[in-house]
Amino acid sequence: MELTHFDERGNARMVDVSEKAVTARTATAEGRIQVSPEVFEAVRQKTVKKGDVLTVAQVAGILGCKRTAELIPMCHLLNLTNATLTFELLPATDEIRALCTVKTEGKTGVEMEALTGVSVALLTIYDMCKAIDKRMVMKEIHLVEKHGGKSGDFFFEEKGGSDEERD
Known about the structure:
This protein is α+β, with helices and mostly antiparallel strands. The protein has a single domain (about 25-150), classed as Molybdopterin cofactor biosynthesis C (MoaC) domain (Alpha-Beta Plaits, 2-Layer Sandwich). The chain contains five helices and five strands, in the order E-H-H-H-E-E-H-E-E-H. A five-stranded antiparallel beta sheet has the order 2-3-1-4-5, covered by helices on one side. Helix 2 (about 55-65) runs antiparallel to helix 4 (about 110-130). The model has no long low-confidence stretch (mean pLDDT about 90).
């Protein structure tokens, strides 16, 4: 197996995508943050002292998508054509679900950008609500699906094997 992020001497490197074709690429990631009932209600009622938590987290998550290459060393700087971040309040479990979809026309995918967007959004919720209760848990951050590129489409399956086993 060839390790794409290392050269022949074992040095870290960015993958060379200069010969790859430009294609439409999309990725969607999701994650959840488990909060206390008190935090959940404060977010829902927009009474958190730092402001409208979900609006700030939405903007932060989109900014995270745009800044991924500055955070993850081997990621390529991409010209994103769209990034959306939405939230779903889950009152039965006192969770907030974040869903991030990122698009580009490029030579490499946007999976890391979608995952970063979700992660930054959830971290922002934590930051804005930690004065109420610090026992929040971010969980289940994962790629939901991706389209485009040489490897084709991917869809997350709860009880599936590796990508290779499903092909």
